[in-house]
Amino acid sequence: MTLETRHSHGLDQFCASLEERPGLSILDLAGANQATVSFLTNYGHRLYSDDFLHQLDLCFGEGDFYENQTNPLKVAKFLESAVNFPEQHFDGVLVWDTLQFLSAPLLQTVVSRLRAAMRPGACLLAFFHAEERVDTIPTYSYRISDHRQINLAARGQRRPAQFFNNRSLEKLFQDFESVKFFLTRDHLREVIVRR
Length: 195
Prior knowledge:
The protein has 195 residues and is an alpha/beta fold. It is built from seven helices and nine strands, in the order βαβαβαααβαβββαββ. The model has no long low-confidence stretch (mean pLDDT 93).
């Protein structure tokens, strides 16, 4: 498997919030991988992992992916299996690029559930593809190599539900305490939000 390495200002900011104290609970939605597990547990943190894209495919992959996200039964199953967390449980959430593949009503529900699962002051890191004139965007499995570097394993191409600019992201995360953006050369908008 070929890994691409990229520098991340967002990850650097996220890790700075983790250095404040040991023993934090971190949620990683890229799925479990040894590099990220080792990196975060070396800080003394507990890691909870789930492959959010896999969960999306399990619940909505049969037929029209985005139309299925409007089916109440499928949505209920997805929320129960993928975003059913105790309130104020996590000190950090690594969402990566997964929110781009949620249609508008489901997206807002998932963001609200993630916020509820975060403790006050907790940080969330998310990536959004910034190029609007493309039909599909690459998806990756993310592995942390150090506090500024991410290794990306390609997972193919997907059609995003929508594209996000700074204004739409501010609206999406309006219930959070703060939103900070980093626009990268490779058309990714990195977002750090604090509850």
